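note to self: dont lose this again. the chain is below, predicted strucutre after it. 159 aa total, dont forget to put it in the shared folder this time
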Amino acid sequence: MSSRFLALVFGGIFGLALSVAHSTARDDPVLGTWKLNVEKSKFIPGPGWRSQIRVYRSMPAGIAVTWTGIDANGEKMQVSYTYKYDGNDYPMPGSGSYDTLNAVRIDARTVKSEEKRNGKTVGIAVRTVSPDGKVLTITDEGANRKGQAFSQVLVFDRQ
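---
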């Protein structure tokens, strides 16, 4: 085989791999803006969030998420972090309960993450986008920085 032919074959394979990697990120159903539906959400113990907006974007470094909102005490919160679905820990600056998060894809619409503090898993979250792409549900169970256990089901509507 000629070196030109091999270069074309390997170039095509490399290009295909890049397009699959990029299309996977762009096709991620979580990408976009989501608004918390407080009435459909559940917080144990309550009360829970008064409001929350989450924005998920595809970036070269992975999925960037920023969420802003008003907590149960009326305090404004903002958390921004970037992660990949590779199971590695990524910092969560601004989080009231966690230092890092890791995430793995369960299927095309579902992601499971471990939320950690001081290297120890203190929370598990499962994020699922509905088949029609209009509802995002996050179930999250763990312990806050005070050691208090909580369980929440956050229901978001696509904006």
